[in-house]
Amino acid sequence: MRKFKTLVTAVVAVAMLAFAGAASAKGGHHDRDHDGMPDRWEQHHGLSAKKANARADHEGDGLSDLGEYRLRLDPQDADTDDDGVRDGAEDADEDGATNAQEEAAGTNLRDPDSDDDGVEDGADDDDAGQAGDVEDADHAGESRGD
Ligand SMILES: [Ca+2]
Ligand SMILES: [Ca+2]
Ligand SMILES: [Ca+2]
Ligand SMILES: [Ca+2]
Q1: How many whole angstroms from 89 Cα to the centroid of ligand 4?
Q2: Could you tell me the pTM of the whole model?
């Protein structure tokens, strides 16, 4: 009977290993806390890979840690490229809306025209409400697919 128990334990262990292997191979990279930022990147930048912290803004530059990952910036450096403009105030895709404004609006930091309506995000409704915004009619009754 003891032998049987040992055998069962071994089989269960092998099955668990196989499952873990399949799970980790699936995503292409490990993201244990499922916050969109791979473990390796989080660890490299001193962030927790075990706690979902995508919305955290580590150095307080106005751009979330997830936004920093998406733009390949340093979440520990408020001005990654040292040009005097904080990461949140930069406009990575040059669409007239800053990175921080795009995060607040839920638009794509790397796409100048997130909803593909021909109007750049900076001039679009949901962004900064900047002058020259004439897109109201266009968006009436339209649900944005975020
Ligand atoms: Ca993660
Ligand atoms: Ca930040
Ligand atoms: Ca900068
Ligand atoms: Ca954009």
Answers
A1: 13
A2: 0.67
